[in-house]
C-alpha cells in the first residue's frame, strides 16, 4: 500500500503527543503551601505526639549513626552532624516535656 500523499490526513506528531499527554497524564493538582501533608489523628494528646516524635528522632539518630559508621570523609562528618542535630532536637523535646510534667 502506498503512503498517503495528502497532508490534511497526516497526523502532526507533536499535536498528538500533547493530546495524549493531556488525557493520559493530567496535571498534578495544585496544593496550597500552607496545607499540611499529614496530620495527627483526632484525639492525640500533646504528650502522645511528643512521645512519638521522640521515638522518630531516636530512630533518625540511630540511622544517621549507623550510616556514618560505614562512611568515610565528608559523608561521615555530614551524617554525624545530622545525628548531632537530631539528638539536640530530641533533647529539647525531652526538656519541654519534663518542664510540662513539673508544672502539673
Largest sheet: none
Q: What is the CA-based Rg, rounded?
A: 27 Å
Structural class of the helix and strand makeup?
Answer: mainly alpha
- Mean pLDDT across residues: 84
| Beginning-to-end CA distance, first to last residue | 89 Å
Portion in strands:
under 5%
Helix content class: 55-70%
Task: Give the overall form.
Answer: flat
Order of helices and strands: HHH
Count every beta strand, where a strand is a DSSP E run of 2 or more residues.
0
Low-pLDDT segments? none
Discrete helix count: 3
What does this structure look like?
By secondary structure, the chain is mainly alpha-helical. The chain has a domain at 45-104. It is 64% helix and 0% strand. The protein has three helices and no strands. The chain has helices spanning 13-24, 46-69, 73-103. α2 (46-69) packs antiparallel against α3 (73-103). It starts with 12 loop residues before the first helix and ends with a helix. The relative contact order is 0.08.
Summarize the structure in short.
With 104 residues, this protein is mainly alpha-helical.
Based on the model shown, name its key terms.
3 helices; 104 residues; mainly alpha
Give the secondary structure arrangement, pairings included.
Elements: H1 13-24, H2 46-69, H3 73-103
